[in-house]
Amino acid sequence: MNKLDVSRIASIAAAFALAVVGGFVHAQAFPSKPVRIVVGYAAGGGTDVTARMTAQKLADQLGQSVVVENRTGAAATIAAERVATSPPDGYTLLMMAAADSAQTALRKLAYDLERDLAPISLVVMGPAFVLVVHPALPARNAKDLAALARARPDQLNYASSGVGSQAHLAGALFGTMMQLKLGHVPFKLISEATVSVVNGDIFMGFPSVPAALPLVGSGKLKPIGVTSARRVGVLPSVPTLDESGLKGYDRSGWYGLLAPAKTPGAIVSQLNAAIDKVVNVPDMKRAFEKQGLEAATSTPEQLAALIRTEVGQSAKLIKLAGVKPE
User: Fold this and answer.
1) Which of 36-45, 61-70, 155-164, 241-250 has the highest mean pLDDT?
2) Helix (H) and strand (E) counts for the chain?
3) What is the span of the domain harbouring residue 304?
């Protein structure tokens, strides 16, 4: 072997070593820039609160800033489409709410929820929603409210953040189980819907616990019942609607993190592990509990199964309640 052959072999070996090291560094590089969590709801609601609490801790875990982007409108489908059509590189994520699963039964979407988005992890279970009324409304509980509705047919209505939203379906289930004909007034934002009840323009609504807490605490809204199967720790004196006579009533939410489909499995696994570490620590659990939320992570496969179940259940409730697609 002459010197030229030795030199060539050394060059090839060096190039191979650089390629291996370069590939390793590239695989370990995520994230090398800020990560964005897109939220389809306005600031202050349960989805936004969950996203911001998670983003703060996730940034520490990933070593990169994690920003929250609110893209409201069209019952959160604008936000979902934004993520579904983003590059599958892990830098644009969606904080999905359970309510988003209803949209496939309500409108023609530019994306397929189960095909175009890759589940990463559940983040929290909850929140429950709170049936609230204007303080001046002479109703102390669900039975009072039902009696008032029967005495004033077609005069009582409820506000929601849009057709197919959790607030809408919670109200539809309430009306169906109470055998009431309630008017539905959809708003673009849950904050607008809640303010309409505070102002007395609409007499009842179903905001999330985080959105309702400050208004209930200040006396601007009167809570009638929570929609979950059990009472909420931050509202211990407020009964469940099940306790109030609507046996079997249970409408609770959840929030989970998703990425665009075809995001590399290694990145999905890295994000899943990071979420598990930041959510399942005592201080985060306590912080979530103060918002009426319960920390709950999952595997990507478990979240995918939950989404499939929610899509089916929402479609059945929409049909039962006679909710019309837009």
Assistant:
1) 61-70
2) 11, 11
3) 33-126+252-320
Identify the band that residue 256 occupies on the pLDDT scale cut at 50, 70 and 90.
very high
Rounded to whole angstroms, the Cα distance separating 30 from 270 reads 9
165 & 185 share domain: yes
Q: 181 lies in a domain?
A: yes
Same-domain pairing of 121 and 163 = no
Q: How far apart are CA 203 and CA 226, in angstroms?
A: 17
Report pLDDT digits (tens) over 12-71: 555 555 454 444 444 558 999 999 999 998 888 889 999 999 999 999 999 999 999 999
Do 102 and 152 lie in one domain? The reply is: no
What are the residue ranges of helices labelled H in the chain?
3-28, 46-62, 77-84, 113-116, 142-151, 166-178, 190-198, 209-217, 265-279, 282-290, 300-320
Facing residues of 36 across strands? 67, 92
